[in-house]
Design goal:
By secondary structure, this protein is of the alpha+beta class. The protein contains 6 helices and 9 strands; from the N terminus they run E-H-E-E-H-E-E-E-H-E-E-H-H-E-H. It is an enzyme of class 5 (isomerase).
Length: 269
């Protein structure tokens, strides 16, 4: 039987999702816990890959288990896994759907703050910046859904069969004080470090060291900029994964935490 497992993780202590023998990774930690529970190796396939220190507020992997279990697997997994990885749901699937190849849309959020805050450390990227040109940055973001080939904003474009990404939406948000920024982008797929490279270019535009026309010229020519500086990894979240047959709401909304949104759910006892 194939199962989809819905999880979230804080990636700060991990060298990304993908299993690697010599470094700590999310996939390896989960497979180890599953092996302990089922007393035999369990291979899992994730919905994508995240870079070192990148988070996922929504992530799916699939696994095949031969016999049904008679215990609460969500509870047991969460007891074994470290606190920075949480299992939300385990969903039996018909046939052999694939967590990675069947996803039709992925959304990422990038969070940035411009003042030192110990409570945002590791959850958002800290940049000591002032006076960013939000209008120019917004103009650059508006260009993204108009282009399909993102070869220019990828670290190793030649390793892909193609570099087409169908960006369905992209937006830029800022808080009232201009101290916190949120960049959101949705596409059918993303290339290596693509979002962090775009975010790095947007920051150059905000600081006035790169023009919107220069930014667009790379999208048109598909030529990688001479100097690319990817934005810090810890501000990036894989925040939504959608399938034709599965579209689950988020269990944790990191944006509310980072924005310190007013919580009206409390009542005085």
């Amino acid at each position: 039987m194939r199962y989809f497992v819905h999880i979230g993780y804080n990636g700060l202590q991990y060298n990304g999702w993908q299993k690697q023998a010599t470094v700590m990774n999310v996939q390896g930690v989960i497979e180890k816990s599953l092996g302990e529970i089922f007393k035999s190796p369990v291979a899992i396939n994730g919905c994508g890959r995240t870079d070192a220190q990148v988070h996922a507020s929504q992530f799916f992997f699939h696994m095949d288990i031969a016999e049904p279990w008679d215990f609460d697997l969500v509870f047991r997994l969460n007891k074994l896994l470290p606190m920075n990885i949480a299992v939300y749901d385990i969903i039996p699937m018909e046939g052999l759907p694939h967590a990675r190849f069947d996803a039709v849309q992925r959304s990422y959020d990038y969070f940035l703050h411009t003042y030192k805050d110990p409570f945002l450390n590791g959850l958002s990227s800290y940049y000591l910046l002032d006076g960013l040109d939000w209008d120019q940055m917004k103009a650059a973001v508006a260009l993204l859904p108009k282009y399909k080939d993102y070869r220019a904003f990828c670290t190793h474009p030649d390793k892909y069969e193609h570099t087409l990404c169908y960006v369905r939406s992209a937006s830029l948000m800022v808080d009232d004080k201009g101290e916190k920024l949120r960049f959101q982008i949705s596409s059918n797929r993303f290339l290596g470090k693509m979002i962090r490279i775009i975010m790095g270019q947007l920051l150059k535009i905000g600081k006035g060291t790169l023009s919107v026309d220069e930014f667009e010229s790379h999208l048109i020519s598909k030529q990688t900029p001479a100097l690319i500086t990817p934005a810090h990894p810890q501000g990036l979240y894989l925040s939504k994964v959608t399938y034709p047959y599965l579209d689950l709401p988020l269990r944790t909304d990191f944006s509310a935490i980072l924005q310190k949104a007013a919580d009206t759910s409390w009542r005085k006892l």
